[in-house]
Design goal:
With 521 residues, the chain is α+β, with helices and mostly antiparallel strands. It is built from 16 helices and 19 strands. The protein has helices at residues 2-14, 18-25, 28-32, 34-56, 60-74, 78-113, 117-124, 129-158, 162-171, 180-202, 206-215, 224-244, 248-261, 267-287, 299-305, 314-321, and strands at 331-336, 340-345, 349-354, 363-365, 374-379, 382-393, 396-402, 408-412, 415-420, 429-433, 443-448, 452-456, 463-464, 472-477, 480-484, 489-491, 494-496, 507-510, 513-519. The strands form two sheets. It has a 15-stranded mixed β-sheet that branches. It has a four-stranded mixed β-sheet with strand order 13-12-14-15, with no helix packed on it. Strand 5 (374-379) and strand 6 form a beta hairpin. Helix 5 runs antiparallel to helix 6 (78-113), helix 8 (129-158) packs antiparallel against helix 9 and helix 9 crosses helix 10 (180-202).
Length: 521
Amino acid sequence: MLFLRLKQAQHALADDRLDQAYELCRYDDVKTHRQGQQLIGHLTEAYVKRARQHIENDRPDLAIIDCNKAQNLAGNLETIGSLRKQIIDEQQSKKRIDYIENQSLNIAKQHIQHGHLSIGEQLLEDIEPNQAQTALLEAKAKRMNLQQCIAKIQHALKQDEYLEAIELTVNQDLHRFSNEQVSAILQDVRRIAEQKIEEMFNLGQIDRAQRLIGHVKPLMHLSIELQGLGQAIIQCQKISSLIKKSQPRKALGYLTQLQGQYPKAKWLKEAIDQTRITAENTEKLLAGPMGLINQTDDFDSIMDLMPNSPEPQKSDVLSLENSQPEWLPDHFLLQVDGVGAYLVVGNPRFIAGPVSHSNRPDIGFIMPPNHPIASFQRLDEDYMLESESAIKINDQSLDRKLLIDGDRIELSNKCRFRFHKTNPASQTAMLSLTSAKLPIPDVRHIILMDKDIIIGPHASSHIQTDLIQENLVFFLKNGQLTVRTKQAIVVGNHEIQAEEGLKMNCPIRIGTLTVVLKQLT
């Protein structure tokens, strides 16, 4: 049997089948035989030789396997020790090279991700093609997408569809790309945005200018003119706030400053004249008897000295401290802390469509003005959708449909939303925006309010949240929004009774939940 193994091992070694010869040489009778020891020596030399070939061909992992087998056969020979050191050096060198290549690949990917395609592609030239292939394909895809986007923007600008051009520019983050073609298109879009916003401002269309400023916000840092127009809108907001706070004299100063910056805005002259008259009349009124009253006197303490005067009740003090709740507007914003913002529509019929459509819609979406508008109408327990031309509903082209829970509505390829009716006992419904955008930031849901809005932890709630354990029911009562709950209701800093009218633009705390009813300007 020994001689058979020796013969088989010799033939395997001669045929360069080293691993088969290695298995045969591991038997003890082969190791102790003189011919077996000679065979082991030749096999060890063959393993050392093949290991060096692996090193030359950049295969250090295979080289270390052959080195280990040579050591198992012949022990710690100097040749094997030298080979092992060479393999370890090669492995460390390969790791350093791989590390550098990985770092270069990551840097190249970051440049591509941030739109610096040419720089990313140059960095990839020094990286092994197999590793760089995916990143190169990504850069190629981004470049093709960029060219298509630029072509669409150029077409939109030629057709004077500036809103679509701005939307494409902002959505594709073109300001992050760095090449001459992108710089030129950015300059064109920026110029048309500046022109349109200034035209709107000069015509007194502050609301439209404000919305357009919101659209081009990512481009603001590229234009001093846009920044100036943005500051003018902020100044108008400040002026409006001062007038509402009965401070016309301060508002007059800001208006005069604005007129110096925008002399073509003719509406400013009329606003200045009206504000000056208001300021003068207010000052004249306060110069008379109304200005003599001492605002610091404690009126309640004087009333206590009056004979038979009843002690003021808590509810009376509240009525003096707080203004009466406002009538609920047709549209308002419902902000639920920790949950989100919801646009609430109270009209049983409203129109939705492009914000810049000639027939100005009740709910305007950011989309090209040439797309159709659609009307929503609540009929008893149902909602009917009608469009001036066919739109896609559940991937079918329709111009009229009785809506059911889960219907998918598409006014354009970038304005899609779903219809939901979560509570069978309530006629209130909801539109959940999937890809549609409103001029109001951070609003992803529109509540079509009938008589109530339910906030709670259950799936049947219109607004679902785990922040509370029991449902809060907001409902209409005498034209005002009230809430039904067992918990204390704090409006501002004062507690009110349940089902008492709620105030707009004031924090309303109910247990752990804070809600604000925000009036839209």
